[in-house]
Task: structure prediction
Amino acid sequence: MRIFLLISVIVSLGGMHIPVASANYAERPEVLAMADRLATKGLDRNKVLKIMSEAKRLDSVINAMNRPAEKKEWKEYRPIFIKKARVKAAASFYIKHQDTLRRAETELGVPVEVILAIIGVETYYGKNKGSFRALDALATLGLDYSKRAKFFLGELESLFLLGKEENLRLTDLKGSYAGAMGFGQFIPSSYLAYAVDFDKDGHRDLIDNPVDAIGSVANYLAKHGWDLGYGIASPVSNAAAQVERMESRIDVKETGRELTSKGVEGIPSAWSELPLDVLGLYGAEKEEYWAVTKNFYVITRYNRSPLYAMAVTQLSEDIAKELGL
Ligand SMILES: [Ca+2]
Result:
């Protein structure tokens, strides 16, 4: 390898522009094994390897993954997403896609404002869909990021399956540094499992087709158990004793009635028989406590962070108010 690098450097110094230290992902044993598996699923093994030979290792992707995890508290996190401008952008998107959004609510049972809030938080209604080549991002993380290599190698394999299924040019697909694509930022395995052809043109296009993207976000939430009868979150008091750790993952397991019997105040009477959890947040003025339902949990299937789920919840409420829903 060292000799190869040295030769490459010499050659490129000679003005031939051969890349120094190319990733050579097509030669990696994990990739050869992946190509074998994909061949059993009807893909052309040589084509897979050809595409992998074009995949680049992106240090910017590794750096983004290694950046210290955001330890923002709710009081800092909230203002990033709960903004008047984002609500206005939701309203413009709604005007363009009203029929699709309403059809998604009717057919899939997920409220218009929740679909809008997810797409707003993920990509600002398609404005920030990501500028990394998904192939490069997933190859880099699957082959040169040992901490989560198995997961991302699986996503890379899904990317190839997706390319075959939807007839996509893999070398053109753009996404986030973690390989999430389109209006709703679906990773390839989610795209394969939950994307729907909502305009029935024969393709599931989450990248350039807002109709498919809207239907697919709704379908993702529906398949994870969204229930129109539940609501999402409601403020409660006298609830600190029910919270083991502030701003941590939730687990809906006690009914509203049980929590009320433990002294929690303010649980909506309609929730007395529903499984709930209490979420504690560091708010701008004081600690906040919220009773949250299964729907809140469903939003955390989209992104594990309870702060993310609360941002989606509150943005959806602002959007509903703005649109008179
Ligand atoms: Ca379609």
